[in-house]
Design goal:
There is one protein chain. With 426 residues, the chain is α/β, with parallel strands linked by helices. The protein has 2 domains: 163 residues, Aspartate Aminotransferase, domain 1; 245 residues, Aspartate Aminotransferase, domain 2 (3-Layer(aba) Sandwich), CATH 3.40.640.10. Helices cover 38% and strands 16% of the residues. It is built from 13 helices and 15 strands. The longest helix has 21 residues. The two termini are 36 Å apart. Bound molecules: 4'-deoxy-4'-aminopyridoxal-5'-phosphate. The site of 4'-deoxy-4'-aminopyridoxal-5'-phosphate has 15 residues, from helix 5.
Length: 426
């Protein structure tokens, strides 16, 4: 059955609320390549939205999962626990930044991780309020959606939102929002809306993902840390998209020198198997009562086995260094095109969490139309790209960190050709 026929069936059978970026149907995937229902091969610069950082079907991940498959697939850790869950918690407690005793809970999705971080912060502080950022993304559940700083499509029609969630502007110099602006807004918030003594948590992405790949300035995070300490507020780093070598470090917070109290993880942790986690200060993690956290599938044995292999592969293949090298090559190529493509307003991102932002030449307004044209042109040439940003005018590059040099070079050529052609036609 071809793509068009499958697409027609999808439209009949699946809620339209589940959006899709491409209308090609996956049949097979290997490292950084996907083959569709018509036998066409694509280079994957989405990696399942920053999930298969270690590539599709990494042999070590597959071997670990196969071995677990032959032992047991599910007991529910809350009923009959298993050593691999405990060991993975030990490994994350050691790996997550922070020179203090840590504990971990496993859940299944990124949204569940951010939900649970709020539950933990509330239980530990006895406070209710949460401060998040405009442009941030934290999931589609009620608290995740409420903390997300983008209305359409995430909140449209779903209100009322959870109470006691406040948003600050995220400092993005490119858009004229300085660190001082964001801190002044926080000061106003504390004066006008919420007593800092009632705030349980700040939640921040060290690099905003869905919001547009904007890196939080280290100085701003330092200030947020100081304010959190002054008022007894828990600092949550949402590393769901930034985690697991993507930014050239295992965690993006390592780049900033700032330590969060709680870290949320998902996506890259499982290398394609659904697993998420909250790791943080042991005393905070122990604040909720026994039975207050968890879930039937949290820390599923197959996903735990995959996560162990992912951590091994990141270390063995030095994927942090690989992320830096790939990102440097991509950014260099994009910079070389800036003259030929006047829509390029910014090229950015640490490691291989890179993006290019487009505006209309002269006017400087967000160029979502151009962004879409580039994405579609690249797809026609066999490269899967994703957009992001509150205005949909950013293309993000999220290839597996294991992508072979030759395939990466091919992708760079497609990116260049797509940008040049779309600029010439604009
Ligand atoms: N937090 C961040 C930073 C994310 O990027 C995402 C997913 N894009 C989530 C939370 C939610 O993760 P999930 O889709 O697994 O619920």
């Amino acid at each position: 059955m071809g793509n068009a026929e499958l697409e027609a069936r999808r439209r009949q059978a699946v809620s339209r609320a589940v959006g899709v970026t491409t209308e090609i149907y996956a049949v097979r995937a290997e490292n950084a390549e996907i083959w569709d229902a018509e036998g066409r091969r694509y280079i994957d610069f989405a990696a399942g939205i920053a999930v298969v950082n270690t590539g599709h079907r990494h042999p070590k991940v597959l071997a670990a999962v196969r071995e677990q498959l032959d032992r047991f697939t599910h007991t529910c850790h809350q009923v009959v626990p298993y050593e691999t869950y405990v060991h993975l918690a030990e490994r994350l407690n050691a790996a997550v930044p922070g020179d203090f005793a840590k504990k971990t809970v496993f859940v299944t999705t990124g949204a569940e991780a951010t939900e649970n971080a709020v539950k933990i912060a509330r239980a530990a502080t006895g406070r209710a309020a949460v401060i998040a950022f405009a442009g941030g993304f934290h999931g589609r559940t009620f608290m995740g959606m409420s903390m997300t700083g983008k209305v359409a499509p995430y909140k449209t029609g779903f209100g009322p939102m959870m109470p006691e969630v406040y948003h600050l502007p995220f400092p993005v110099a490119l858009h004229g929002v300085t660190e001082e602006d964001a801190l002044a807004a926080l000061d106003r918030l504390f004066k006008a809306d919420v007593d800092p003594a009632r705030v349980a948590a700040f939640i921040v992405e060290p690099v905003q993902g869905e919001g547009g790949f904007y890196e939080a300035p280290a100085a701003f995070l330092r200030e947020l840390r100081a304010i959190a300490d002054r008022h007894g507020i828990v600092l949550v780093a949402d590393e769901v998209q930034t985690g697991f070598a993507r930014t050239g470090r295992l965690f993006a917070m390592e780049r900033t020198g700032v330590t969060a109290d709680l870290t949320t993880m998902a996506k890259g942790l499982g290398g394609g198997f659904p697993i998420a986690a909250v790791t943080g200060r042991a005393e905070l993690m122990d604040a909720p009562g026994t039975g207050g956290l968890g879930g039937t599938y949290g820390g599923n044995p197959l996903a735990v086995a995959a996560a162990h292999a992912v951590l091994d592969v990141i270390a063995e293949e030095d994927l942090c260094a690989r992320a830096e090298a790939l990102g440097a090559r991509l950014k260099q190529r994009l910079h070389s095109l800036a003259g030929a493509v006047p829509q390029i307003a910014d090229i950015r991102g640490p490691g291989f969490m890179n993006a290019v932002e487009f505006t209309h030449p002269g006017a400087g307004t967000p160029a979502a139309d151009f962004t879409n044209a580039v994405r579609q042109r690249a797809l026609a040439k066999g490269l899967i790209l994703l957009s992001c940003g509150v205005y949909g005018n950013v293309i993000r590059f999220l290839a597996p960190l294991t992508i072979p040099d030759a395939v990466f070079g091919e992708a760079l050529d497609i990116i260049e050709a797509s940008l040049r052609e779309c600029a010439a036609e604009a």
